[in-house]
Specification:
Length: about 375
């Protein structure tokens, strides 16, 4: 679609196919507002963005929800196709369909998210009540890992007030684009607010220094990995206890801290699951590494164990969730019920794929996902 006339015909046909009158009106409102807000884009470039956006979603359904909730939607910026709902929730259009699935007796998450964010923007929710509601919807257990603009702003204020005290101005600048990156904000908030560890400004300072030493201060996900490592190694211990990084993770830091955080538990589960007993001698770091990075992924990362697929908030990453039943372990021993039967727990694993972009492509549906499935994490026991 390399000329304006063909593009407009495509948009006209898309609009004509929408039967719901409210949805049709909201569709045209979105299209016309975008066409009137080209910025530095040519109209051909802007039309291309609009076509990519409405092709990446179930347009009639999304605009019907926008109409039913009296919501607003526009492009979040002048470059990509991230959609901004109610000036509060930024999301890639391809991530919307999963939010519109419905279980029996439940409301659709997309409808609820747009209603709650719209009500907040018109002053119907106090901020504390709103943060609880929107957080419950966007951070569902075993579901999305999304975050709203107000949640990001609250988190940035918390970082500045509580955790940046011991950082230099240059070090604080490493976090300057946090407001523009919901996925990185979500990840960083998760590790900072982890209630299993008393995180403080000194811990943040140590994590930032580690990130500087590793040369990863331009990547907030890697800074989050450094925080996880410092949380584990608050006492002076060298980061050299395991063999070199694995290709199954995006980075050596991610591989390392996941091994430190979950390796021993995974080793114990694997021994009871496969060998039905624990070895006599304590495992070496190499033993743990082999089980965590090689043996256990072979057991869980299988098609029959895959339970859910999630498109992440900015649409460039797809996450698979795998689950399987394993023996429940406590202090290296099987946990049994009153009749002597071994109790079970659910062992979870996560992997991610990156979208492979096609230059000047207007249809996200034909953009493939990479063949390189990366571990995101595993060993997340669920009772």
């Amino acid at each position: 679609m390399d000329n304006e006339e063909n593009q407009q015909q495509h948009l006209d046909a898309k609009g004509a196919a929408i039967e719901h009158e409210g949805a049709k009106a909201k569709y045209w409102e979105f299209v016309e507002n975008a066409q009137n807000s080209c910025g530095e884009n040519t109209i051909i470039d802007q039309n291309g963005r609009i076509i990519r956006a409405v092709t990446s979603m179930v347009a009639e359904r999304v605009f019907e929800v926008v109409a039913n909730t009296e919501s607003t939607v526009r492009f979040a910026n002048g470059e990509d196709i991230i959609s901004h709902f109610n000036e509060e929730f930024r999301v890639h259009p391809s991530a919307l369909e999963q939010m519109d699935q419905i279980a029996e007796g439940e409301e659709r998450d997309l409808q609820q998210v747009l209603q709650v964010t719209k009500d907040f923007k018109v002053g119907q929710h106090q901020i504390d009540k709103y943060l609880t509601k929107v957080g419950d919807l966007l951070n569902r257990k075993d579901g999305y890992r999304f975050i709203s603009d107000t949640e990001i702003n609250e988190f940035v204020e918390m970082l500045s007030g509580n955790f940046f005290i011991d950082l230099t101005n240059e070090q604080r600048y490493y976090f300057h684009h946090l407001n523009r990156s919901p996925e990185e904000a979500y990840r960083l908030r998760t590790v900072v607010k982890d209630t299993s560890y008393n995180f403080n400004s000194k811990t943040m300072q140590a994590a930032v220094k580690l990130a500087e030493k590793r040369g990863v201060t331009d990547d907030l996900r890697e800074i989050a990995n450094c925080i996880e490592i410092i949380k584990i190694y608050v006492i002076n211990k060298l980061i050299n206890g395991y063999p070199g990084g694995t290709k199954k993770y995006d980075s050596d830091l991610a591989a390392y801290y996941h091994t430190e955080k979950h390796g021993k538990d995974t080793f114990e589960v694997y021994q009871w699951m496969i060998r039905r007993q624990m070895p006599e001698n304590p495992p070496t770091p190499g033993d743990i590494y082999e089980i965590y990075h090689q043996k256990m992924p072979e057991e869980i990362i299988r098609e029959n164990n895959r339970k859910r697929t999630i498109i992440e908030q900015y649409g460039q990453t797809k996450k698979y969730t795998y689950k399987m039943n394993v023996p429940k372990i406590k202090n290296g021993k099987l946990v049994r019920d009153s009749e002597g039967k071994t109790l079970q727990m659910v062992y979870q694993g996560f992997t991610v794929f990156k979208r492979t972009p096609i230059p000047n492509n207007w249809n996200y549906e034909n953009e493939p996902w990479s063949d390189d499935e990366k571990m995101a994490s595993h060993f997340c026991p669920k009772k």
